[in-house]
Specification:
- By secondary structure, the chain is an alpha/beta fold.
- It has a single domain (2-133), classed as HUPs (Rossmann fold), CATH 3.40.50.
- Helices cover 36% and strands 14% of the residues.
- The chain has helices at residues 11-21, 36-43, 51-59, 77-82, 100-106, 126-133; strands at residues 2-4, 30-33, 66-69, 86-89, 112-115.
- The strands form 2 sheets. A 3-stranded parallel β-sheet has the order 1-2-3, with helices on one face.
- The longest helix is centred in the N-terminal third of the chain and has 11 residues, at 11-21.
Length: 135
């Protein structure tokens, strides 16, 4: 399972999905889409695309097996529903991860958490791409 805003898909996101899928022989990838309100809270701005548009965009990616919307007030409940064996975090993902493994274990879900490697992190960041493309 991975988490993100995915306000448009670029090569960095595709590499993120490939890295996550490679962590398991079962190779089933669930992507959790951040809710608009939470993106605003974390990034101090709303995403360009609405959560339903971002959901549909990621759903159309052939690397992804399942897409879910994250929780609005509680980020743990939707993870418990999916019960992933592995959670793959992006190299720069900091929101909601500090006590994630411990919080999930308290609820009965033992999960392996792995931090993935960046893919050209000075190129493939949405805010950098938007600057270059003047979006």
């Amino acid at each position: 399972m991975v988490f993100g805003t995915f306000d448009g898909l670029h090569s960095g996101h595709l590499d993120f999905f490939k890295q996550a899928k490679s962590l398991s022989t079962e190779s089933f990838l669930t992507v959790s889409i951040a809710r608009d309100k939470n993106v605003k809270k974390i990034k101090n701005k709303f995403p360009k695309l609405k959560e339903k548009e971002r959901f549909a965009l990621v759903l159309g990616c052939n690397l992804v097996d399942k897409v879910v919307l994250s929780g609005i007030k509680n980020h743990i409940l939707h993870i418990l529903r999916e019960a992933p064996q592995i959670i793959a975090l992006g190299y720069d993902q900091r929101a909601y991860v500090k006590n994630l493994k411990k919080d999930l274990a308290k609820k009965g879900l033992k999960v392996k958490i792995i931090r993935l490697k960046p893919y050209k992190n000075h190129v493939y960041k949405n805010h950098l791409l938007k600057k270059r493309l003047r979006i």
